[in-house]
Amino acid sequence: MDKKPIGVFDSGIGGLTVLKEIMEQLPGEDIVYFGDTARIPYGTRSKEVVIKYFFQSVRFLLTKGIKAIVVACNTASALAMEEAQKEFDIPIIGVIEPGAKAAVAATKNSIIGVIGTEGTINSNAYQSTIRKLLPSAEIIGIPCPLFVPIVEEGWESTDVAYITAKKYLLELKEHNVDSLVLGCTHYPPLRYTIQKVLGDNVTLVNPAYETAKAAKRVLQDMNLISGRLEGGKCDYFVSDDPEKFKRIGGNILRRQITSIEKVEIENL
User: Fold this and answer.
1) Nearest to 182 by CA among 12, 41, 14
2) I need a surface site. Which of 78, 85, 137, 254 has the fewest CB within 10 A?
3) Is the pTM of this model over 0.85?
4) What ranges in 111-180 are assigned the alpha helix state H?
5) Which one of 58, 73, 102, 197 is the catalytic residue?
6) Structural domain contains residue 267
7) What is the DSSP code (8-state) at residue 265?
8) What's the CA gap between 28 and 47, in Å, rounded?
């Protein structure tokens, strides 16, 4: 048993969809969440910059005495995981592999869609991981950058979201995709709009849920579970604009964020 907190990292607010799943599956764990809100989005940045930002964020979380890190950011998982696992002596769980495994398990015709930021799609991280698991897979990757600001504005159920989704997802319908990875942690709040566009024959894969399951397995296998069945708390830290984080984050988590602190991250 290990009562130290779990660290959860995202480039901003979207990672709260992963945090929400962790809270539900591991209600007895304390958590430290860091959102690098000053430097979002990561999806349009180079691999070198993403690695730099991610390493700084990991160093901050390590000052909080964490026992493991969940990388609740698809871009950082795609571009920085391998380097981070070499650099830091702590379990690091990303979102790519759990999401890819779930997509392979869900597909019946081996035609799989992946949507995400430009950085995630262009990295081919999901595509290459899916092909290792299912070499015959046909994978259609589509960047959907406008989905992030739509969610951050709370517009996920509006006509704006529906029209944008129709524009982005037309190609997936043309290719007869039967499973779709929501390859950005901002996207789960859009799942009802996306399902409406694609129809009920397409299975939506939520890597946030799958990542929480993977984190639970890792912690259990390494005897790092706290042993508590409930009562876990979460401390929130951001690099900018805590009030916006509280407002949007509360909507994502469906709970009020009362304690949040802005931190300087550049010098770590």
Assistant:
1) 14
2) 254
3) yes
4) 118-123, 125-133, 147-152, 159-174
5) 73
6) no
7) -
8) 35
Distance separating alpha carbons of residues 92 and 216, to the nearest angstrom? 12
Residue with tokens 């944008």: 164
- Domain end (from 172, 188, 207): 207
| CATH code for position 116 | 3.40.50.1860
Catalytic residue list contains 144: no
CB atoms within 10 A of CB 39: 19
Per-residue pLDDT of the chain (268 residues; tens, 9 = 90+): 899 999 999 998 889 999 999 999 999 999 999 999 999 888 888 999 999 999 999 999 999 999 999 999 988 998 999 999 999 999 999 999 999 999 999 999 999 999 998 888 988 999 999 999 999 999 999 999 999 889 878 899 999 999 999 999 999 999 999 999 999 988 999 999 999 999 999 999 999 999 999 999 999 999 999 989 999 999 999 999 999 899 889 888 888 898 899 999 988 7
Q: The tokens of 217 are what? A: 């397995």
- Total residue count of the chain as it appears in this document: 268
According to DSSP, the β-strands at 260-262 and 234-238 are: parallel
User: Which range marks the domain in which residue 191 is found?
Assistant: 96-207
Pick from 29, 25, 41, 37: which is nearest to 5 by CA?
29
Query: Which listed residue (184, 194, 208, 224) is catalytic?
Result: 184
Q: How far is the C-alpha of 219 from the C-alpha of 225, rounded, in Å?
A: 6
234 is annotated as an active-site residue: no
Residue 216 lies in a domain: yes
In a domain, 268, yes or no: no
Regarding whether 79 and 69 lie in a shared domain, the answer is yes
Total domains in the chain come to 2
SS3 call for 35 = strand
